[in-house]
Amino acid sequence: ETETLVNNLLKFNYSFLVIDLRGQGESINSVRGKLDWRQFSSQDYQGYLADLLAVTGFLEEKGIKIENQFLLSSGSGANLALKFFSLNPKFKAVIVIDPLASHEGVAIEKYLDKDQAGKLLFIFSKPNELANNLKNLNLKLDIAIFPSNQGLKEILVQKEIIDKIKVFLLEHLI
Questions:
Q1: I want to staple 73 with a disulfide (CB 3.0 to 4.6 A). Which of 81, 89, 147, 165 is the partner?
Q2: Measuring CA to CA, which residue among 80, 72, 112 is closest to residue 96?
Q3: Could you report the per-residue pLDDT of 84-94, keeping only the tens digit for each?
Q4: Torsion of CA 133, 135, 138, 140, to 10 degrees
């Protein structure tokens, strides 16, 4: 889903390590057989956090400090990125696209910290209750709504969204 967006942002000299989370995309095979994220337990979900920790560690070993890394994710992965960020607040920027109001029984607001809120960009493909609730919080959240009847793949190619993400990254990664 994010391939087109990544390709557009590569033009601005950002480097990316794109991962498929366990049970999604190309990451469905394991020693336990086929994985399906829709059947994951809370313990499996914790494995996602371990995966992200391993990825950030790998990048640090390659000389990219966590302070120069950013997270970009969508859907339930956006919720995961927010939870990971709440545990690892050294990231300078986190971009979440169409997060879920709640995932694994935990409301998204649990992961929001007023001291870190300025590092977050929320992008929604349509107005919804979560976007309204986030706007009403007493936090300095950057929330962008790009109304569309299209799917995520189609909206991520829109120049307006790419420009919003590019400016956000320029402001936060310098």
A1: 81
A2: 72
A3: 999 999 998 99
A4: 140
